[in-house]
Amino acid sequence: MAPARKLRQRLLRLFHAFFPPGEAPDDAFALAFLEGEERALYLAMDPRDRAHGVRVARRLLQNHPEAPAFAVRAALLHDAGKALRPYRPLERVLTGLWAPPVPPHPLRGGLLGAFQVRRHHPLYAAERIEDPRVRALVLEHHCPKSLWGKRLHQADQEE
């Protein structure tokens, strides 16, 4: 991704951390794909993260109409680990700018917990997902290895 576009995306995220766009997530779209416990994981997410997941899933389907259902479900749930604790606006900003190396467990409160969630949210989500194919793609969220992991990552970066 071009540096100018990456900077633009970061500034837009910063702005949205303080002033959420008010976009309602298309929960009906998401729930049509999700199965079993995945629905509860999705609905526990912050509305901004649900709307983001829906946009990523739609982008994935737009770029790859042949995407298997498990990849679409992973797109919808890739940020579900952030639902473990609320993200305050200032925490969203700070963790977007800097994410120090912190252990995933035990999950702490305060700013340390926010750094943990920022760094380890794929792990936290994967620990709650039963389907091994969805779990594997969610775990690859920050470091894609598989074909669908790379495609999901690309859809997330384009969003």
Helix residue percentage: 55-70%
Domain count: the total is 1
Task: Determine the number of helices (DSSP H or I, runs of at least 4 residues).
Answer: 9
Overall shape: globular
Can you summarize the main beta sheet? Answer: none
Q: SSE order in H/E notation?
A: HHHHHHHHH
What is the straight-line distance between the termini?
12 Å
Beta-strand residue percentage:
under 5%
Give an account of the 3D structure.
With 159 residues, the protein is mainly alpha-helical. It has one domain (3-158). The chain is 64% helix and 0% strand. The protein has helices spanning 3-18, 27-33, 37-43, 47-63, 69-77, 89-97, 110-126, 132-139, 147-158. Helix 1 (3-18) packs antiparallel against helix 6 and helix 4 runs antiparallel to helix 5 (69-77). The longest helix is centred in the middle third of the chain and has 17 residues, at 47-63.
Which key features would you list for this structure?
mainly alpha; 9 helices; 64% helix; globular
Concise overview:
The chain is mostly helical and 159 residues long.
Question: How are the SSEs ordered, and which strands pair?
Answer:
Blueprint: H1 3-18, H2 27-33, H3 37-43, H4 47-63, H5 69-77, H6 89-97, H7 110-126, H8 132-139, H9 147-158
Helix pairs in contact: 1-6, 4-5, 4-9, 5-8, 5-9, 6-7, 7-8
